[in-house]
Amino acid sequence: MKTSFFEFHVAISGLFTAKSSLSTISHNVANAATQGYSRQRAVVKASPPLGFNNGRGMVGTGSEVVNIEQVRDLFLDSKYWGESGVFGEYSAKTAQLTVIENIFNEMDAENGLSATCTSFFERASDVVTTANDTTFRTNLIQAGGSLAQTIKSEALALRKQQIDANNEISIVVAEINSLGIQIASLNKQIATFEMDGSKANDLRDERTRIMDKLSKLVNAEAVERDYGTPMNPNDKRYVVMINGYDFVSNYEMNELGVRERAQKLNDLDEEGLFDVWFPNLDMSFNIFHPNLKGQLRGLVDARDGTGTGFAGLGPQASNYKGMPYYMAKLSSFARTVARAIDLGDSVDTLGNVKKLTGVIGHVNGFNLEGNGNETGAPDEGTLFFTIDDGTGPVPETFSLTASDQDKQDFYDRMNCFNFIVNPALDRQPALLNCAPDPLQGESAYAVARGFGYVSSDNSLFREGKLQDYVAGISSEMGIDAYQAKKFEASYGDVLSEIENQRIAVAGVDMNEEMVNMIQNQQLYQASAKLVNVINTIYGTLINNLGA
Amino acid sequence: MRVTNSMLSNTMLLNINRNMGGINRLYNQISTAKKIQVPSDDPITSARALKFRSNVSDNAQYQRNVSQGMAWMNVTEGAYNNVIDIIKSIKDRCLEAANGTLEAADRQAVAAQLAQLAKQLGTEMNVSYAGRYVFSGFRTNEPPMFDVQTDKSYRVTQDFGAYDIERTRFYQKLSADGVPETGRTDMIKLAYSLPSQAQNLILVDGAGNTITATPTSASAPDAYDSESLASGSANLITETGEIVLSSLDSPNITSLSVTYDKTGFMPGEPNPIVYFKCSELDSLGAVIKTYNMDGHDIMYEFSANTDLKINSLGYSTFTDKLYAELRNLGLLMENIPLSSQRQLQDKYRALGYAGAELEDAANRQMAEEKAVLSTVLHDRFNNMLSVCDSHLAIISREHTDLGARMNRLELVLTRLEQDESSYKELMSDNEDVDMMEAIMLKSSAEAAYQASLKAGANIVQMTLSNFI
Known about the structure:
The complex is a heterodimer of chains A (547) and B (468). Chain A is built from 12 helices and 17 strands. Chain A is of the alpha+beta class. In chain A, the strands form 7 sheets. In chain A, strands 5-6-7-8 form a 4-stranded antiparallel beta sheet. Chain A has a 3-stranded antiparallel beta sheet with strand order 9-10-11, covered by helices on one side. A two-stranded antiparallel ribbon of chain A has the order 1-4. In chain A, a hairpin with a 5-residue loop joins strand 12 and strand 13. The longest helix of chain A is centred in the N-terminal third of the chain and has 60 residues, at 134-193. Chain B is α+β, with helices and mostly antiparallel strands and 468 residues long. In chain B, helix 2 (43-99) runs antiparallel to helix 3 and helix 2 (43-99) packs antiparallel against helix 7 (355-431). The chains are: A alpha+beta (547), B alpha+beta (468). The interface between A and B is large, with 65 and 59 residues.
């Protein structure tokens, strides 16, 4: 049996529904520009009807809002996180390689390694034409100096970039931690709000937004596992994995940290580069895992990539062409050129020593005084390039009776940081050994001519000629930078496509909201009208019938 | 698919951004006139650019080398022309002298002329380019002919062949008024006169036999007489540096190596370290340094692995043999003893001649002396003529060789210039922006940019709320 004033309840439920809907609409409109916001919808249902006793049907009781639900496709989120990792990796690589590219600066016609190299061999050719003139000899020595200086400054810039990448890694790790803390705390808030089975929509949006950020830094996945029991049906736990490790499990976070490497992975690396670990678990985080993504991967590849992986570390290493790769390239260049210029031979990948055609070797030559070195001591030859590694005196001469092993040891010590022109030549340009024979005369140039044969030797490097090797460094780096830029751009496109898909589902559409607004406004107005009508009805009933 | 406002504005931003990126790229290209700024803009183009740049740069170096080499060879060629002229003058002098009967004054004049021409040859040998003697091989600081006196000591080795043995006649007059004798003399000529105390003179013939040379004065009896020498012995004429061989030996000698020590050199004498295998000696006669002239070809690099010889050597141009011939002929001319009219008259008066008989006897001997002298000089000058001819042949060969090399160098230069322009064209094609195209592209990119701005601005402004 209907109660009195029942119609008021029905009409008022319309007012309430319209008001709730309108407030949801205005929340949507207010957040139309909010990043990561997903639109909400008031789920309206007819309230349970009342049945007539006489079985002549049911009478409706109006409407009610049962839920404010979020319109969102969770599958698109995990898709976004997956692609965002790759995007993060390549945007970090682009940033790193752009710097390396500028370090090598090969397109600079004056100062690139290729240009200084060309200039060095041209000065050698000048000496051939006028070997007696000390000015020409001095020019050659200075050109050698700029070659060494170019290599060294490029190597130092690479090392500085390695340090920067290392610092960035620690910043990324700190950022990952900070995002993890936020996720853990949101998990707690969401659980508290959702105790009664409702949805904490805005908090969930916030958590997704943070996951979006995290997925750019490192490959991250999130799952919400249902631990609900009949007693406690709303126990959902949110778990975040990064690179396959549990990172956030519901309210708890495994803090990530960096620690200095005990042992360098590469001889030329800066001391104390960071490895990543979970300090609380005393467990290391494999930064060389093939599935690692995100900026962290990009930075690790750039900082540690040797192009070949590390001996003994197997697949657990970065085979990207990062800073160590380019430092090794420069070192191999310095070593090969120095050995060819000074000893007149080269060592192939199998370790076989090969005499270079036409190249006498600076140590085997004789200076203007008819001596092989400054003091005139026999069996010693002045070096053109030598090693200054800050430990002990710089070797200025080389024994002419050195064994293959001694030669190997000497040139193994040489790298892109310690490669210099013999300071003795800087002091005294007359010490340049040009003559193949002590008494051939002041214009004898065969040794300097040999420099030219070094530059035209087709098999000096596996890559071919010396200039091919230098051009190879630059084009390898160009190709990698090109690839990183392309990947960054294309994954950026992929991301914005997924983002568009997300917005298509979850974004606020003004026109839709306006239509809904007008609908609800009309609902409200009509319900209010009904209240008025019912009021008139009851007025008639009470005032006119009763009295 | 649902389309929302944020999608519209995102897409609009993305498109505007892409358009701006395009304009930025074109602006960079136009303002630097280069297609690429960094290798990653286009790795292939950048690798090619490096290759072309180094080609262009190498080419410029080769062209510098060519101009250096050309200048050097021009200097050499000038010297050759002069040397040929000088040798021709020497020939003319010799021709005149060989055909006429020379009076004492004429002989002196010829001697002076030959000395002058020899000096000129020496000057030509000492030409330099940029302060470097061009005929000295790598020893560009050593003049081929000494220009100042030096006290250095050298142990010189000179090699002679069978053709270097001059078979001629000597002229000998044992007393001031005696009748001159003549006879066969087979001799070789050292580059220098050696004092009588000449040390360490060693002669070894091709068969390994040692010949012992005795220092002898030119005026000693039979100093030049090869037929009076026993096999295995020889005379060293100290004033002239001639070595008179035994007539028993000379037909069998295929080659002869002569080693001697010489201290002190006069200006105009050949520099042993440019001409010979030699060792510098210290004051005690110990060897300090040993020199030879093997492998003194100066080669410049004119393209990758193509080296061309640019120099010519003094010892194959104005040879020490020619120098020695000229010097000795001059010495001979200056020191020919002929009896004077008065000496002869005194001589025959003492022998009891008088009057017309005296005149007759004196004139007869004078005629006899002149006849002997004439035969000897004729022989000598003819020999000198053949020496000159063979030298002219050598020098012409060298000169032709030099000319061929200069021609080749000109061809090289032409090719280098062609290469340069084609490399530069390739380089420009590869890395330079085609301005017209780029500006056109930029204009259309600007149009697209403006259109995207305008359309975007209109679309994102409108929603249903504008009409409620």
